[in-house]
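Lab manual, section 2.4: Encoding a predicted structure.

Procedure: take the sequence of the chain (220 residues), apply the prediction step described in section 2.3, and record the output as structure tokens. A sample record is shown.
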Amino acid sequence: MRAELENEGYVVVRGLLDSDWIEKLKTEESRFARTDHALSVQVQLVHRSAVIREFVTSGPQIPHVIQALGPNVCFTHQQYVTKHADERSRTDVPWHQDNGYGRLEPPDDLTVWITLDDCDERNGCLWVVPGSHRKGLLPHAPAHGLMAAESNEEGIPLPMNAGDAVLFGSLLLHRSLPNETDRTRVAMYARYCEPHVIMVTEGNKPVLQDGFSWMVAGEA
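Recorded output:
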């Protein structure tokens, strides 16, 4: 896994979640999702949901994160991204790097992006640019309420089944296109890092001083 992350910048893990976890996490998403926005982004729900808290701290992704980052792992961020079926509104997310939003230094981190619905190019699957993590942090600018990297890359789509996941670091370029179907597409991600990193966009705060961060493996 480490070799693939170093070379390509991402790893796809098929069947990470069983049907029970999918159902529980989708139930929690429905509690918090905004139906008045075609693109619903709900962040940091770990203090409001025991199910989400259990998942991000001890779910089936943790062994994969340890394999990628090493024995000492800190959880730092959770987010749902829901694309409702709405032809009138934009649900695309432009090319970006996670460090273009919440910058961690050094970038010793891993995002676990999980689809809770079958996803393909029509309903907003993830796209990635293999090897783009080697370019370092790119300039980002506001775009339709989100952040977009300066990039003309074409990338490749990653169609996945519900319960599949893709793991990548904070420097990998990724995006998702609009949901053009008549059904909702729900995805969730959890971000992990080594416990020595600094949250640059939070005033250079040590990650373990953040109220949403917990050690989930090893020790600080």
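Check your result against the sample. Residues 2-217 form a domain with the Jelly Rolls fold (CATH 2.60.120.620).
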